[in-house]
Amino acid sequence: MKKLVIVGTGSRAYGGFAERLVKNFSGRVEIVGLCDPNKKRCEYFRDSLGLNAAIYKDFDLMLDELSPDAVLVTTPDGYHHEYIIRALDKGCDVYSEKPMTTTVEKCRAIREAEIRAGKKVRVTFNCRFMPYFAKLKELLAEEIIGKPLSVNYEYMLNPNHGGDYFKRWHRFMEMSGGMMVHKATHHFDIINWLLDDEPTSVCAEGARLYFGNESHPHGERCMTCPHKTACESYGSVCENDHLKKMYFDAEKEDGYQRDHCAFRADTDIYDSMSVSVSYKKGTLLTYSLNLFNTDEGFNMHIIGEKGRLEFSNLFEGEKHKITVRHRDGSVNEIYFPKGTGSHSGGDDRMMEMLFGNVSEDDVLGQCADSFDGIKSAMIGIGANKSIKDGIRVELTPILDSLR
Ligand SMILES: NC(=O)c1ccc[n+]([C@@H]2O[C@H](COP(=O)([O-])OP(=O)(O)OC[C@H]3O[C@@H](n4cnc5c(N)ncnc54)[C@H](O)[C@@H]3O)[C@@H](O)[C@H]2O)c1
User: Fold this and answer.
1) Phi then psi dihedrals of residue 122, to 5 deg
2) In terms of residue numbers, what domain contains 131?
3) Model pTM score
4) Atom 20 of ligand 1 has which residue's CA nearest to it?
5) Quick one: which atom of ligand 1 is closest to the CA of 77?
């Protein structure tokens, strides 16, 4: 039985991991400790899941007293490195939520700790386990379009989902790296993985065009807002009992408001971004991320020597569809079942791979390590620098120094 402790007992740790570990992996993994500065949230986490876990504010004390085999890091992004490094130094295996971390210096400190400990961090990139990305990976491996030359990836969030990032710690660059790191790390990782390649340089533009603007009708927080019925980003921390108990009832401990108004000006991140990335094997990526769109989803085109792959998760059929356009004008439409459950079934499949009794090899290479975490985070970190300094950022020297 693997002894696991969790640091950062918020909604991702709860719904993404702990609920599944209790339901599906209770004979293989036991959650023996929980650590969070907010004791009330930690207690709700433990009690509502029926865990027999000790609660700590002091992470090192938890590791010393419980001697866990592994640590799951699900704190705000800007703190991941602190716990990853301390866990490695105590000889634990580490699972870290994405983004692995948010700055070059933190990437370097994690790599140094891995080398010291002789261990590798696993980064929980659940998107790699979504059925459509797995299918695209298979088709590219079969060379259905030959060598990929160019990728267009357009990602959109609606104002409710996009606004959520302006309500919490994500709205500060220092805590999340902005959406270029926090959100786009998923998307950059997918492209790195699909292409089986690494980025060499990045150029970007970014702006805040919608959120964080107090000329928009706004309030203090959703729960008490006079504009709640008209607001596309409304979402009260008390809209269900679980959220209320996890966040509202724990507010007095640390003042963390889960539903701070998304239109208040106390933010420094962008809500609209465009990025160009060059890859080692010559492929070019054109990527955009918009957080206040009318629709939620993405369009992806991969153009290769022999043709083009098209996929959109906005397609409303009963099954997913990938279109292959060959250079001779012929077209194949490939249909396959949609995944069910959170993140299109990606969370369940990832958990099976990380904690289940998996006998087959990881043939698609879906399990990500720290260098995968570094490659995707570095595109976002470089993109932020590109926007700030108005320059193209070379990534190869940095990646070479972190290998
Ligand atoms: N892969 C995915 O699909 C996915 C989805 C959501 C979130 N995430 C990631 O999961 C992580 C947690 O996100 P969340 O939405 O649960 O956030 P959250 O704010 O709900 O939870 C974070 C928890 O960390 C605690 N915390 C704050 N400061 C801390 C510190 N210094 N040390 C230890 N704990 C601290 C908070 O009290 C809270 O309980 C983030 O890294 C996020 O990027 C991943």
Assistant:
1) -100, 130
2) 127-211+267-342+367-402
3) 0.98
4) 10
5) 41
